[in-house]
Amino acid sequence: MKFEQWNHKLLLLALAVPLRPGHASPLHQQARDAVSPTCKRTTVAVLGAGTAGITAAQALTNASVHDFLIVEYNDVIGGRVAHTTFGVKADGSPYTVELGANWVQGYSDYSSIETFDQTGAVNYTDLLDTYDNAYSVLEQDAGYILSKNLQDRSYRAGLSLSGWKPGKNMQAQATEWWQFDWEYGQSPEESSEEFAIVNYNTTFYQYSDANNFVIDQRGFNTFIKGEASTFLTPRDPRLLLNTIVTKISHNDTGVTIYYKDGCIEADYAICTFSLGVLQNDVVKFSPQLPTWKQEGIETFSMATYTKIFLQFPKDKVFWNTSTQFFLYADPIERGYYPVFQSLDGPGFLPGSGILFVTVVSEQSYAAENQDDATTKAQVLAVLRDMYGAKNVPEPTAFMYPRWSTTPWAFGSYSNWPPGTSLEMHQNLRANVGRLWFAGEHTHSEYYGFLHGAWFEGQKVGGTIAGCVKGNKKVCVEEVDYPMLRGVTPEAQYDPANGWFVTSFQTVGFDD
Length: 511
Prior knowledge:
Layout: E1 13-14, E2 17-18, H1 26-35, E3 40-47, H2 51-62, E4 68-71, E5 83-86, E6 95-98, E7 103-105, E8 113-117, E9 120-121, H3 126-147, H4 155-161, H5 170-184, H6 193-204, E10 211-213, H7 222-228, E11 239-240, E12 245-251, E13 254-259, E14 262-271, H8 275-279, E15 284-286, H9 291-299, E16 301-303, E17 305-311, E18 325-329, E19 339-342, E20 354-360, H10 361-368, H11 372-387, E21 397-399, E22 413-415, H12 422-429, E23 435-437, H13 450-469
Parallel strand pairs: 3-4, 3-14, 4-11, 8-18, 12-15, 14-23
Antiparallel strand pairs: 1-2, 5-6, 7-10, 8-9, 12-13, 13-14, 16-22, 17-20, 17-21, 18-19, 19-20
Helix pairs in contact: 2-13, 3-6, 9-12
């Protein structure tokens, strides 16, 4: 549920004359004008109008920096806080459902759950308590790793050491999916023990221990539009919608952004593109980003979280509408259409007949790369195992997004791989000259959460405002780490540690 949640993960020299950031040389400006007279010109270019982009621009405005342009791929602001219409109400109008971010920290009754396997309803909720007991041990262990600066390990290793070993028990596997994958969008094997616990604790212990599902029929991005309206006017010329960035040129004196029909020259740029976009090389950087930056980008993971919506006739609803969640343990495949959620219930969209199921990771990739008919047949087969073939009719509406193949997202939200250091994450986060980066993926504690994007946009916007204003205390570049070393010194690669031959042997090869 990670980026699904608003509980739930920043924002100088010219010619040979040394200048502080934000004080461009008039001669340099004239040279830029002469070289590219057709480019739009601005002080700050904000790339992306999602949460981080809007809060970055808001921070600039609050610091009285009004000369900026916001460049957005889509025809609406909001980024991965995106909704669409679905199904039909009694009056013939459609419902609004969220494709991406969907949760506000607050309250949701996770105890409202029924459990199933291929035989139908079967109660294995006791496994939820068993998992929680192991989690309590793991949580303390992760704190010890962090406080003593010990080597991180995978969340899977942490669970095993804490006594949770689901093995081939598919009910236990489903329980684990509900408790972990549904939150992080990837498996325990793919996730850091240390930073997954940090990520969870800094959000849920700081704010609240639960979430509230957004059903606002205006769409969840209404709050982002509301924030934007505090500094953007209707049809504000500083907001460039339907503008697809193809290339970013950058150096220590400015940034040039290229798109299909033109270009923008800016003193600074804030890149809020998703980690998935950065990893898929859909935007060219010139010169190439430094190796340390590329390593930061490629090391972290982009999870995919796919919600698959079905609407059934209101008089043929077959599930208990007073229950929110329905957990399914497939007998063969872990994470196979495992968690269904009812929107036809008190406090949600009663009478809607809407049910949706969530898949992540490999199951997301499979669903998103096959046609709707195949996916619908698979989901209905699961529901008919759960409730009986005769009780589950054909849906009147069916729909799901394909986040892993969406060219302005390439996934849903970021995740922290095991054994990856804070310094490596800082390389993902750090600026390259006057090109800065912000988004949920750049927040070291709130990665994957919507509020991570919020705070990172604010921070980078405020920092660049300080640069523009010549405030040395605020205009501070991010730390980066060009050389990150392993934990084993060279001397320990010896027979005592099972290292009997050198991997650097060159005998038999030509020089």
